[in-house]
Design brief:
The protein has 3 helices and 20 strands. With about 425 residues, the protein is mainly beta. Strands 17-16-15-14-13-12-11-10-9-20-19-18 form a 12-stranded antiparallel beta sheet, covered by helices on one side. It has a 4-stranded antiparallel beta sheet with strand order 4-1-8-7. A 4-stranded antiparallel beta sheet has the order 3-2-5-6.
Length: about 425
């Protein structure tokens, strides 16, 4: 399998220091300000980050504050390197630093003060496919940075480029129609797996494993409502052998008094992999995906994925995502972009690396981008598109387990559909009844 070119651009170790030579007004603002920066790269959404105010000039900013990350594919790099592509002769990474009163928000006028900017020019090094340190250390910013005898505000940051090649896969049809899965490489589509969807009203043949975190409250005899259960997806390699699977461990049922699956009783999938040493069909749990739906200003499906490391009783929460039930969206496992708030993540056995985590098919955890999966809304024909970091793939079975997870994500959007709503054309009616 040949990966596609991706580059990880990271901005980290942010810090701001203001010397005694700057204006009294700025120092007074700084003492009660929340310092922010807007990080801009043309063609990408603006990202915002807090900037710690450093009072000690000797302070070491390399204690790894959270990184702001842009992921650039080959076409992004080509666009940035093309003169005049964005109506400007040269593209830049720009970091604009602001001070604002406590309680203000970046972007609100009259409540923040821009104190300076720093630019990194996009150049040939961005396309070399090698690690590159574009900047590291303190740099003067602000209007008076060049005035003799004055030292203006100084910004500390580290800007790095790292190659991050990825495999890209797509389901050729809706998951419920048992499609083929292909690898994308330019205009070439290479068949890699087949996906077999089934629905058993009596439940899955692997229901003996559903005791993993099963929290269904549907045993109440008086609570007779329809439920979606017994859905299963098998991932087969080109030889026809099952190499991964996902099945419903907890049915998707509407909460009392509502027509939707709620947070208090989410539906859940168990993602499993075959025993590598057993010739029989013996499956091991790898992860658990929970899903529910909440109504509000934006009707959304919430997805929460726990890794189930081998030999550990507790799961590790590695992704908590909200996806629009109407427009669809992206599910991802990416420790550079998010870590579920308020959830302690224990260091797995035999793994070091501080607070940086990542996920592998073998159940280990260590840092960075792992995978993403783009899906459509509940009433649209969805053909999941999956990206998988090359460094997490050692064999075809490593890929298969993430394809099973992607299938479960896609089907969860449909499974969380309100129960009283009639299905529209385009999705098999049999799995909604």
């Amino acid at each position: 399998m040949d990966p596609q070119v991706f580059v990880r651009l990271s901005i980290e170790s942010l810090g701001l220091r203001i010397s005694t030579e700057v204006t009294k007004n700025m120092r007074e603002i700084a003492l009660q300000a929340s310092c922010l920066c807007e990080i801009r790269l043309r063609g990408f959404p603006v990202q915002t980050a807090s900037v710690p105010l450093i009072s000690n000039p000797e302070s070491n900013r390399d204690n790894h504050s959270s990184a702001i990350v842009f992921y650039l594919k080959e076409s992004d790099l080509t666009a940035l390197m093309t003169p005049g592509c964005f109506q400007a002769p040269q593209a830049y990474l720009e970091i604009a630093v602001f001070m604002g009163r406590q309680g203000s928000h970046c972007g609100v006028t009259n409540r923040k003060q821009q104190i300076g900017t720093f630019r990194v020019e996009v150049g040939p090094r961005w396309c070399e496919g090698k690690p590159a340190l574009l900047h590291h250390g303190w740099i003067s910013i602000g209007k008076n940075k060049k005035e003799a005898g004055k030292r203006g505000p100084e910004l500390h940051l580290r800007v790095k480029l790292d190659p991050d090649p990825r495999y890209v896969f797509q389901f050729e049809d809706e998951t419920a129609l048992s499609p083929q899965i292909v690898q994308l490489q330019g205009n070439i589509k290479q068949p890699i797996f087949s996906c077999e969807f089934s629905r058993d009203r009596r439940g899955s043949q692997m229901d003996h494993m559903s005791n993993y975190w099963s929290n269904s409250n549907t045993e109440d005899k008086d609570f007779e409502m329809r439920e979606r259960k017994g859905w299963k997806v098998m991932i087969h390699d080109l030889s026809g052998f099952a190499v991964a699977a996902a099945f419903m461990a907890t049915p998707f049922v509407p909460s009392m008094g509502f027509d939707r699956v709620s947070r208090s009783n989410p539906g859940a999938w168990l993602i499993v992999r075959p025993d590598p040493v057993s010739s029989s069909e013996n499956w091991h749990p790898w992860g658990r995906l929970e899903a529910w739906r909440e109504s509000g200003h934006r009707d959304s499906v919430y997805l929460r994925f726990h890794l189930l490391p081998e030999g550990q009783e507790a799961g590790v929460l590695v992704s908590a995502i909200q996806i629009s039930s109407d427009k669809g969206g992206e599910f991802y496992i990416d420790m550079d972009r998010q870590m579920p708030i308020g959830t302690p993540v224990p260091s797995p056995q035999g793994v070091t690396g501080g607070d940086n985590y990542t996920v592998t098919s073998g159940g280990r955890t260590v840092g960075g981008f792992v995978m993403n999966c783009k899906v459509q809304g509940e009433e649209k024909s969805s053909k999941p598109l999956v990206q998988l970091a090359m460094r997490h793939v050692t064999c075809i079975e490593d890929v298969a387990i993430f394809m099973a997870l992607a299938a479960a994500v896609d089907l969860s959007i449909k499974a969380c559909r309100p129960f009283r709503r009639k299905s529209k054309k385009g999705f098999p009616h049999s799995i909604l009844t």
